[in-house]
Design a protein that fits this description.
single chain; 354 residues; alpha+beta; Uridine Diphospho-n-acetylenolpyruvylglucosamine Reductase, domain 2; Uridine Diphospho-n-acetylenolpyruvylglucosamine Reductase, domain 3; Uridine Diphospho-n-acetylenolpyruvylglucosamine Reductase, domain 1; 3 domains; five-stranded antiparallel β-sheet; four-stranded mixed β-sheet; 8 helices; 20 strands; 26% helix; binds flavin-adenine dinucleotide; binds uridine-diphosphate-2(N-acetylglucosaminyl) butyric acid
Length: 354
Amino acid sequence: MMIETNSSLKAFNTFSIDAKTKTLFHFKNMTQLSELLTVVKAVRSENRPVLILGAGSNILFCEDFSGLVIRVELTGVDIIASENSYLLQVAAGENWHQLVTHCIDNGIDGLENLALIPGVVGAAPIQNIGAYGSEFKDFCESVDYIDLQTGECLNLSAAQCLFAYRDSIFKSKTMENALITKVTLKLPRKWQANSRYALSKSAESGLEITAQTIYDAICQTRNDKLPDPEQYGNAGSFFKNPVVNQKKAAQLLKAYPKMPHYPQADGQVKLAAGWLIEQANLKGKTIGGAAVHQQQALVLINQNNASAADIFQLAEFVRITVKDKFKVSLEPEVRFIGCQGETNLTEVLNDVRA
Ligand code: FAD
Ligand code: EPU
């Protein structure tokens, strides 16, 4: 059914939170557009919110959703080969990892460092997905979207998307009506391995360095480090890696000479949130059914039937503890839906300082 009412979102978010939405629209093809716009208008006329959803791998639902969830399920991949490059036009509902695998299997190289990132293609521009030295922006030509307010179909070039670390124009208030329908990627035929990490991994294995060996190494590392959401619900890194000024980085390095740190082009320094959390002795910390993952402290998991409040409180606990110890603020990477006021901060604080 295209439109459902009072449906569970449990299967549609990787924390497996059993939140319900009042209205759910499965947007499977562009012929449904006028109907979708009519539903959006009706929902908004009742002052109910609208949420665009991909695979729900970067979202925490703290309460039932009183509005309309549009699940983007548009499919289709067009590959246009030219003398020097491949142009990929990919519909927003295609699975990102399947796209990467399809490309590698067909000798279209370049996306290998971004293998095994969960989610759909239409969500990739939102936070400019990245891993192991590559980011979505390195391959993006343009992004097509619909303005849900006006119904217009529009296009932004990669430069107009203002991509940055875990950020893009699509996170700004001005773009809250933008439903991404398609992305266009450009992959040069002349391939170059683009990550020291991947190179060292494949070199260790003694294999010739190809996009395939890098893809395999990345998949192996990710499978070793990151929990499978099928086993333990999670949303990958719960926080972004914090970026601090040189003075702050120098202070921390004086106290913790082994602290991982990554100087940025603008002079700032990126720190590893996972390291800060581990040093604050939070690996394995639980609140209710939620836990800080033992293998990767930046990942919070649904270990044992966690409620969203458990996960949210654990996130607050981590944030406060890290702030107390290092005076560094962690900003969530995960998008919270309806989580304000869910936590009893006094209790969390007392617990932290006990
Ligand atoms: P959702 O969670 O459904 O949505 C995320 C955001 O995008 C929401 O704000 C939503 O409203 C918006 N959105 C989704 N689709 C559209 C659309 N068509 N138009 C407009 N807005 C839309 N991320 C990384 O960057 N690097 C990693 O290495 C990485 N590893 C991960 C590992 C694990 C195990 C998990 C669970 C997550 C990981 N993530 C990583 C986070 C996640 O995979 C990405 O953020 C991904 O792009 C989310 O895709 P999604 O389809 O699940 O989006
Ligand atoms: N570290 C620890 N303890 C931990 C976790 C990490 O000491 O529990 C240290 C590691 O030893 C390393 C450093 O922290 O020195 C960085 O760790 P890692 O290489 O595992 O990467 P990360 O910074 O934790 C980031 C991204 C991931 C991405 C990987 C690989 C962010 C917020 N996270 O994680 O993205 O896959 O690098 O490039 O930038 C995601 O966004 O959901 C995500 C998984």
